[in-house]
Write a structure and sequence with these properties.
Helix content: under 10%
Number of domains: 1
CATH class: Alpha Beta
CATH topology: 60s Ribosomal Protein L30, Chain: A
CATH architecture: 2-Layer Sandwich
Structural class: mainly beta
Shape: globular
Largest sheet: 10 strands, mixed
Bound molecules: zinc ion
Length: 145
């Protein structure tokens, strides 16, 4: 079995801001990283969505299944990381959302989550050598190597 991937990282710049109403949550976070050239880091956000799309990775079928979530909903928590995939900043985030009852559902953040209001913090990390995602035979996922 191959050893785990490990890097030492130094804190870099910190970005804080508001996400535009109507925008795609994952697309907006990815575009901020691209514009500011954040290649590695962590991301957090809270807010509300008019539409949410979450995924659950079926480990046997090796594919994401979409989870049905209430819309509109609150973003209870978005946590994620930023690294490189195909040479470009790639945001991998998980999201916990709640509808009117407050019951929380969570999963992998998919494209198609539309922002009602959102506030984010992105913390850049300086990582060397770079963390790049590549297809992992054992899981079927694009993991760090
Ligand atoms: Zn995930």
């Amino acid at each position: 079995m191959k050893a785990v991937v490990i890097r030492q990282a130094r804190p870099g710049r910190v970005f804080i801001g508001r996400l535009a109403k109507g925008g795609d949550l994952l697309g907006l976070l990815t575009s901020i990283c691209g514009r500011e050239n954040v290649t590695h880091g962590e991301v957090r956000a809270i807010g509300a969505l008019t539409q949410a799309r979450l995924g659950y990775y079926n480990q046997v079928a090796r594919e994401y299944k979409e989870i049905t979530v209430p819309s509109p909903c609150e973003i209870v928590s978005l946590v994620g990381n930023i690294s490189l995939k195909d040479g470009r900043p790639f945001v991998h985030a998980h999201l916990a959302v709640a509808g009117a009852t407050g019951r929380v559902l969570g999963g992998h953040l998919l494209e198609g989550c539309l922002v009602f209001a959102g506030e984010y913090v992105i913390r850049e990390l300086e990582v060397s050598p770079l963390l790049e995602r590549a297809y992992d035979e054992a899981t079927g996922l694009a993991l760090w190597r």
